[in-house]
Design brief:
Number of domains: 1
Strand order of the largest sheet: 3-2-7-17-18-19-20
Number of strands: 20
Number of helices: 14
CATH topology: TIM Barrel
Helix content: 25-40%
Strand content: 15-25%
Largest sheet: 7 strands, mixed
CATH class: Alpha Beta
CATH architecture: Alpha-Beta Barrel
Length: about 450
């Protein structure tokens, strides 16, 4: 065996146990009793959790085309520092957006040159033409992203109301899941007009301009369209707990609906948004603390399937525009580096579980479930024989604060100055160490494209 990870507590889908991981040819060869087996090299994992690498199903690295916002080189390094070994990059914010086979190939080429973590790619759904969708499916896209409100960038239009059902039907025929940004355009437009007429320009005004009703109506409409067409849908970055009612009802009649939330929706609340400012501007916006607690309970109860960062950085200048008027700032949270520690910290504060139990729960929601949902399982999202050796060594006892010099994202992170419990010590992608003890130690080009390989996408 080429490499052995020894002495740690292994986190698998079956639970946790003391075992060693033997790695050969980029894959996990075996899990063995401590000290068994031989290897050319060993990694000492004593006192650490040995977790499957996080599969972050929702990032925006803005590359090609808006590389000054961040790009694959910097974004993937931030991911590695956070224990993320596979990212699924969204089709918008890059130029061109990923809407067909040619644009898919262009983004894949940039990522293969620059990324230090493995990656899959979402395609875009902006209309009902089935031709581009077949191209994207043949390229190995993990699914399609669509908006029920304006996306924020002109080159990626929302799905027109009249096109939603035929577009979902075309996606179903291409055998691709549709990830939907669910906010009702009419509700947002009318609420924004009221807030602006009253002179609102701060974080509270932003939240009021996108009320929970916008999510509730859009989610209900999306679920109804999925029921009509047989499409599989995935509701991204759910923030309003009340929107889960339509999802629960849709599932009861057999509609395939999954849902993600993001760590910022329970790690922060609307009071934090007022205090921190534009770094926490996002859509949908942060809600109150009670809503955040309800989201967490829904995650524990299985009503929410997974957690993703929705990492969406921009230049500091684009965020600074919101200091005077929050509506002028770019909306997005830079959170890929903080995904795992933020969720672990929150879970530890709220659950009466030991570190291993929390790690097991988070491995399901951060690695196993996204890998299964988007067609990367069993290669990704688990520690077991024949899986890629994507491994995070995690110190559950470490207490630390994110310092500006340690934040690798180009974006303005709201987690700067945040106190965490639990820290990534080392990140391996296919057995290769890409991050160790505070430093990224891999060069661009270490990554591989991971296509959807069957199962639900």
């Amino acid at each position: 065996m080429k490499l052995a990870v020894r002495g740690g507590t292994i986190v698998t889908e079956a639970g946790t146990r003391g075992a060693d991981v033997l790695i050969d040819a980029e894959r996990i060869a075996a899990l063995v009793e401590p000290g068994e087996g031989t290897s050319d090299e060993e990694i000492d994992a004593r006192g650490l959790l040995v977790m499957p690498g996080v599969v972050d199903a929702h990032v925006h690295f803005n590359d090609p085309g808006r590389t000054e916002w961040e790009g694959w080189a910097r974004g993937s390094r931030a991911a590695a520092a956070g224990g993320v070994t596979t990212v699924l990059d969204m089709p918008l914010n890059s130029l061109p957006p990923v809407l067909d086979g040619a644009s898919f190939a262009a983004k894949r080429a940039v990522a293969e040159r620059s990324s230090v973590v493995d990656f899959g790619l979402w395609g875009g759904l902006t209309g009902a033409d089935p031709g581009p969708l077949r191209e994207l499916a043949s390229c190995g896209a993990v699914g399609l992203k669509a908006f029920l409100c304006e996306s924020g960038v002109p080159e990626f239009p929302k799905i027109a109301d009249r096109d939603l059902v035929p577009a979902l039907r075309a996606a179903a025929e291409a055998d691709l899941t549709v990830a939907l940004h669910c906010e009702d355009e009419t509700v947002v437009r009318e609420a924004t007009a009221r807030v602006r007429a009253d002179g609102g320009h701060d974080a509270r005004a932003w939240s009021a301009s996108r009320p929970p009703l916008a999510e509730v109506r859009a989610v209900a409409r999306a679920c109804d369209a999925a029921r009509q067409t047989g499409a599989r849908i995935h509701v991204v970055h759910l923030s309003a707990i009340d929107a889960l009612g339509a999802i629960d009802a849709a599932r009861k009649v057999g509609t395939v609906v999954s849902v993600e939330t993001c760590p910022h929706y329970f790690a922060f609340d609307d009071e934090d948004a007022t205090r921190i400012g534009p770094a926490l501007k996002c859509a949908p916006p942060l809600r109150d603390a009670a809503n955040g607690r309800a989201l967490w309970s829904a995650l524990l109860g299985g009503r929410i399937d997974l957690i993703a960062s929705d990492h969406s950085p921009c230049t500091p200048e684009l965020k600074a525009r919101g200091d005077a008027d929050i509506f002028a700032a770019w909306g997005g949270v830079a959170g890929v580096q903080s995904l795992l520690p933020a969720v672990f910290t929150y879970a530890r504060a709220r659950l009466g579980l030991g570190s291993a139990g929390i790690a097991g729960l988070l491995s399901w929601r951060l690695a196993t479930t996204p890998a299964q949902r988007f067609g990367l399982w069993p290669r990704k999202g688990r520690i077991g024989p024949a899986a890629d050796a994507d491994i995070v060594l995690f110190d559950p006892q470490a207490e630390w604060t994110l310092d500006p010099k340690d934040s690798l994202t180009a974006g303005v992170s709201p987690y700067i100055g945040r106190r965490f419990t639990g820290r990534v010590v080392r990140t391996l992608v296919r057995g290769r160490t890409v991050y160790r003890d505070g430093e990224v130690v891999a060069d661009g080009g270490a990554a591989r494209f991971v296509p959807r390989e069957g199962g639900p996408s």
